[in-house]
Amino acid sequence: GLVLLGATWFGFYLARQLSIPLEQLAQAAQKVVKGEYDEVSISSGAPEINRLIGDFNTMTTYLGRSEREIREANENLSKTLSQLNEHSRYVEVVLSQVTTGVISVNQENIITMVNRHAAKLLDVDPVELIGKKAELVLSKEYYQIFAELVGAMRTQKAPTLQKEIQISVKGRPLLLQMTVSVLTDKEGKEIGKVLRVTESRQGGVSPVSL
């Protein structure tokens, strides 16, 4: 009877030694789901359970570090985007005040900016152009002029090309000085092109009716 009682007590004791760590692991796992990555500071008489606890703590440490790195990266990205937006707004304000028409396109030929003076000179609406493919929203004549300038620039392998062109806007003849240039990033990689347009009063012209 004493042996049976002892065996029964040992069985309950062993079950308790195993169940308590497993319960705490289960609770810790539920916290992980909520984003809490606390290590489990428990031990068990069973080597398998201790190995499981060690693996769990290794996992939570890794997850916690990864989440911090992701959070810091997101914060840095948000800060950078905010600074870029502020810079972009500043550039837009400056360009809107200059007396030179400025139109830019990216590598996909999408119009990224049309300043106020360019819109007035060419009688176009920036809202209808920005964010859209140049060949789809510019008039056939306007796009042909732009394409010919870009083509000539590539043929001459020049980063900038300037040309005087006479057009007609709402029946009014207009002599324009057009300059197309390649836009590059800090590494010198081409990221687009910018077209500068100013009204000219003299010089040889290439008449084009728009």
Task: Offer a quick outline of the entry.
This protein is an alpha+beta fold and 210 residues long. The chain has 6 helices and 6 strands, in the order H-H-E-E-H-H-H-H-E-E-E-E. It has helices at 2-33, 47-97, 116-122, 126-129, 134-137, 140-155; strands at 101-106, 111-114, 160-169, 172-184, 190-199, 206-207.
What does this structure look like?
The protein is an alpha+beta fold and 210 residues long. Helices cover 54% and strands 21% of the residues. It has 6 helices and 6 strands. It has a 6-stranded mixed β-sheet. Helix 1 runs parallel beside helix 2 (47-97).
- The tally of beta strands, per DSSP, is 6
H-E string: HHEEHHHHEEEE
Helical stretch tally: 6
User: End-to-end distance, in Å?
Assistant: 111 Å
The amount of helix comes to 40-55%
Derived from helix and strand composition plus strand pairing, the structural class reads: alpha+beta
Q: Name the strands of the widest sheet in spatial order.
A: 2-1-5-4-3-6
The shape, in one word, is rod-shaped
User: Unreliable segments (pLDDT under 50, ≥5 consecutive)?
Assistant: 203-210
Sheet with the most strands? 6 strands, mixed
Give the rounded overall mean pLDDT: 76
Whole-angstrom Rg: 35 Å
**Approximately what portion of the residues adopt beta-strand conformation?**
15-25%
Overview features:
210 residues, alpha+beta, 6 helices, disordered C terminus
What is the topology?
Layout: H1 2-33, H2 47-97, E1 101-106, E2 111-114, H3 116-122, H4 126-129, H5 134-137, H6 140-155, E3 160-169, E4 172-184, E5 190-199, E6 206-207
Parallel strand pairs: 3-6
Antiparallel strand pairs: 1-2, 1-5, 3-4, 4-5
